[in-house]
Amino acid sequence: MPYRLLTHCGIKYLTFAGQNWVAEREWPDPERAPGPDGKATNDGFISGRVVLLDDRTLRFKVEPATIIGKPSEVIFHPTDDEIPICK
């Protein structure tokens, strides 16, 4: 399923299907790849797809050519943690 992941404060949490999820590994906000106009735009999100692998594992796969470097995918697990407000 297509998904826009909030990355402004890094990649640690997401909400999907009414559940909060926490990443196995935290990542800083990725560098954006330039678009066709040669400019990189950062609106605080990256596009990709989420796949529910099982009831305890969710994979977010970054849309190709949207970021420079890693991560190309992030694995998340359910959490009861409240997602903090990004400052």
Describe the structure.
The chain is mainly β and 87 residues long. It has no helices and 8 strands. The strands form 2 sheets. A 6-stranded antiparallel beta sheet has the order 1-5-6-8-3-2, with no helix packed on it. β5 and β6 (57-62) form a beta hairpin. The model has no long low-confidence stretch (mean pLDDT 93).
Q: Largest sheet, if any?
A: 6 strands, antiparallel
| Order of strands in the sheet with most strands | 1-5-6-8-3-2
Count every helix, treating DSSP H or I runs of 4 or more residues as helices.
0
Order of helices and strands: EEEEEEEE
How many extended strands?
Answer: 8
Q: Name the overall outline.
A: globular
Rounded to the nearest angstrom, the radius of gyration is 13 Å
Q: Roughly what is the average pLDDT, rounded to an integer? A: 93
Gap between N and C termini, in Å? 28 Å
Structural class: mainly beta
Task: Please report which band the strand proportion falls in: under 5%, 5-15%, 15-25%, 25-35%, 35-45% or over 45%.
Answer: over 45%
Poorly predicted runs are none
What level of helicity do the residues show? under 10%
What are the defining features of this structure?
87 residues, mainly beta, 6-stranded antiparallel β-sheet, two-stranded antiparallel sheet, 8 strands
